[in-house]
C-alpha cells in the first residue's frame, strides 16, 4: 500500500468523523455567515457615512477567509489530544502505516472543510455586493490552503508535545489574540499607529490577510501577493518538517 493511498484512507477517516458531528458542522457552516451578518453593518457606518456594502465586503471578507483558515488549522490539535487520550495513537504505533500519512490525511481533510466554509462565505457575500474576481480567488485558495496546513501542522505537533488539553489550549489561546489583532483581520492594520503597523510585520497572518485582500480585488501583481507567498511557503515547509519529526517520534 503506497503512501498516497494511506493518506487517502486517513483523509476519509477524518472526514467521516467530522460529518458525523452535526454540532461541529453547524458551527463551521454558520460562523462565516454570522461574521458577515453581525459585523458588516458596523463597518458600513464606521467612517460616519453610509458606505456601500459591497465596498465594505471587498475589504472585510478576505480577512474573514484568512481567519477561518487560521482557526481551522489551530483547532486540529484538539482532535490529536482526544485520540491520544482514547488510545487511538497507541494503536497506530503497532501498524506499518506511514507516519506521514497519519499526519497528512487529517490535514488534507481539514483543508477541504476550510474551502467549503470559505465558499459559503463568498456565495453569501456576493449576494450583498462583493465583487468576484475568479482568478484572484483561485490563487487565494492556494495561499489559504498553505497557511491552513501550516497552522494545522503546528497545532498537531504542539498537541503531541504537551499531551494534555489544558496546556495545549493555553498555548493556542495565548497565541490567538496577538496573532489575530496584529493581522488586521477585522479592521485593516493601516488604521493603527506607526508602531502597531511595524509590529504587524512579525505576524505571518498579517501577510496572508494583506495578500488575501489584494487577490480578492484581482490585483495579482500586487507586492502583497508575492510577500504573502514568500512568507507562507518557507514557513509551511519548515513547520511541516518539524511536525513530521515530532509525529514520527511520538508514533515510533
Structure explained in plain terms:
The chain is built from 11 helices and no strands. The chain has one domain (3-250). It has 252 residues and is mainly α. It has helices at 3-19, 22-44, 53-74, 76-86, 88-93, 99-126, 134-162, 165-183, 194-199, 204-216, 223-250. Helix content is 80%, strand content 0%. The two termini are 19 Å apart.
How would you concisely characterize the structure shown here?
It contains eleven helices and no strands.
Shape: globular
**How many beta-strand elements?**
0
Please give the alpha-carbon distance between the first and last residues: 19 Å
Estimate the helix proportion, in percent: over 70%
Gyration radius, rounded: 19 Å
Which structural class best describes the helix and strand composition? mainly alpha
> How many domains would you count in the coordinates?
1
Order of helices and strands: HHHHHHHHHHH
* Integer average pLDDT: 85
- Show unreliable segments: none
Amino acid at each position: 500500500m503506497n503512501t498516497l493511498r494511506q493518506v487517502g484512507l486517513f483523509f476519509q477517516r477524518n472526514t467521516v468523523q467530522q460529518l458525523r458531528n452535526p454540532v461541529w458542522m453547524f458551527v463551521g457552516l454558520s460562523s462565516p455567515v454570522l461574521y458577515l451578518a453581525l459585523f458588516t453593518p458596523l463597518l458600513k457606518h464606521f467612517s460616519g457615512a453610509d458606505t456601500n456594502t459591497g465596498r465594505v465586503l471587498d475589504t472585510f471578507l478576505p480577512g474573514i477567509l484568512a481567519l477561518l483558515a487560521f482557526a481551522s488549522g489551530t483547532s486540529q490539535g484538539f482532535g490529536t489530544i482526544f485520540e491520544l487520550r482514547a488510545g487511538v495513537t497507541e494503536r497506530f504505533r503497532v501498524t506499518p502505516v506511514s507516519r506521514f500519512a497519519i499526519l497528512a490525511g487529517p490535514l488534507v481533510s481539514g483543508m477541504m472543510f476550510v474551502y467549503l466554509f470559505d465558499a459559503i462565505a463568498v456565495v453569501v457575500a456576493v449576494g450583498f455586493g462583493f465583487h468576484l474576481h475568479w482568478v484572484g480567488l483561485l490563487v487565494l485558495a492556494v495561499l489559504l490552503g498553505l497557511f491552513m496546513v501550516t497552522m494545522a501542522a503546528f497545532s498537531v505537533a504542539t498537541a503531541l508535545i504537551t499531551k494534555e488539553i489544558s496546556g495545549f489550549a493555553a498555548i493556542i489561546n495565548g497565541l490567538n489574540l496577538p496573532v489575530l489583532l496584529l493581522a488586521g483581520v477585522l479592521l485593516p492594520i493601516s488604521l493603527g499607529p506607526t508602531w502597531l503597523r511595524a509590529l504587524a510585520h512579525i505576524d505571518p497572518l498579517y501577510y496572508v490577510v494583506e495578500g488575501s485582500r489584494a487577490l480578492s480585488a484581482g490585483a495579482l501583481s500586487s507586492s502583497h501577493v508575492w510577500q504573502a507567498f514568500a512568507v507562507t511557503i518557507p514557513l509551511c515547509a519548515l513547520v511541516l518538517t518539524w511536525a513530521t519529526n515530532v509525529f514520527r517520534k511520538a508514533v515510533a
